[in-house]
Every structure is written in C-alpha cells, then in structure tokens.
Amino acid sequence: MLGGAQSGKSHYAQQLASHSEHVTFIATAPRSDTEMRKKIARHRRERPVAWSTVEAPLNLAQTISSESHKANVVLIDCLTIYVANVMGARKASSGTLKKHIEAVCGAIRASKADVIVVSNEVGSGVVPPYRSGRIYRDFLGQMNREIAQIADKVVLMIAGVPLTLKDLRVSPKKRMNDTSPLGLAANGLPVLANGSRQKHSRLRKTFE
Predict the structure, then answer these.
(1) C or N: which end of the chain has fewer Cβ atoms within 10 Å?
(2) Preceding amide of 78 cis, omega within 30
C-alpha cells in the first residue's frame, strides 16, 4: 500500500484487514516523545479492539515471522518509519541496509498469514540536499520495490483513491469489471497485499 502523506493508505489498509477474523497490527513508530505517544494512543483507539497490536520499531522481520503463526492477517504500518528507525540505530552502510531488506522480504514470503504493508512513496519529489536524506530515500525506495516484486497486489493511494498497480489474483477481464473500491473478490472477500496462504497452497498442489 503506497502513497504520500495523508493519502488514505493506512485507512484503506485497515479496511482490507477488517474483513479478517484474527488481525495483528505491527506498529513501527517508537514512543519518542509526548506528541508521538499521544498519536500512538489515538491510533490504537481508532483500530478494532479485537486486533492485536505489536510494536516493532526495529525487529520487523522477526515480528512478522512470529505473528504470522497467530493471525490470518498481519498489517504493517509502516515501512517509512521502520527505515528511519534502522538508519537512526545503526550505521547506514549499503550492506546493512540490504540485509534488512532481504530479512523483511524473506519473512513476508514465509508468512503463513496474509500480509498488508503500508509505505510512503518518497521518490517523486526533489533530490534531498543532504547525504543522509538521499540514503534514506534510496533505502526506502529499494525496500518498496523489493516488496512490490513479491506482493500479489500493489495499490497506490492518491487523495484517498486507490489505484491498483499490480494484481496477480484477478484476471485482466475481471479487473476491468471490478468497480469495488476495496478490490473485493466475487465472494466478497478482500484481495490482500500478499496471499501467503493461497500461494503456499498453490505450491503444494504443484509439487503434489
């Protein structure tokens, strides 16, 4: 789920996840100051009370792996802050950043739950004037690209309107006729960002 600030991407992601019975929300924002703590508390109140919330400012890959065994859907909000956390906590070498991307992508691929990922698209603006800003832009852009490659569905949010960039789970003919704002399938279930369970099922059938 990609988009700019206040584009509606988090709200859209939560709408998708709300169709599932067991949802784990992975929050990456740290409780850095009073303003952030109030914001986190407000966001918790806005989510369904039945959802589990796990805070993972840094250990995202490990958290995805552990929580995917407990939930039908894992919603990560968001990669934008996670990347900033990683860069702030560790020396931002290209090798270190690549390992984080590989670890997160590996955890998503192996997930037994469907995974919805929220992230900002930050590469459309001007080139950041500082080196750290350019490293951040490139790191987030690479992570967005790698996750989009393994996702079944990629949605770009613009002014609250979802634009489907990629959808491997819907045929081209069906996609043209699908007018649902949430991309619901014929059975009324949402088409999620990654279909791990269906993917594993298809693989098992292939090898059988």
Answers:
(1) C
(2) yes
Query: Total domain count for the chain?
Result: 1
Domain harbouring 38, CATH code = 3.40.50.300
Rounded distance, CA 30 to CA 97, Å? 19
In the sheet where 161-167 sits, what is the strand order?
52-55, 23-27, 73-77, 114-120, 2-3, 153-158, 161-167
User: What domain range includes position 202?
Assistant: 2-207
In the chain the beta strands, taken as DSSP E runs, fall at: 2-3, 23-27, 52-55, 73-77, 114-120, 153-158, 161-167
Do 143 and 104 touch, CB atoms closer than 8 A? yes
- Which one is catalytic: 11, 19, 22, 43? 43
Q: What distance lies between CA 32 and its chain's CA centroid?
A: 22
pLDDT tens for each residue of 161-196: 999 999 997 765 565 555 444 444 433 334 445 544
To the query of whether residue 43 is one of the catalytic residues in this protein, the response is: yes
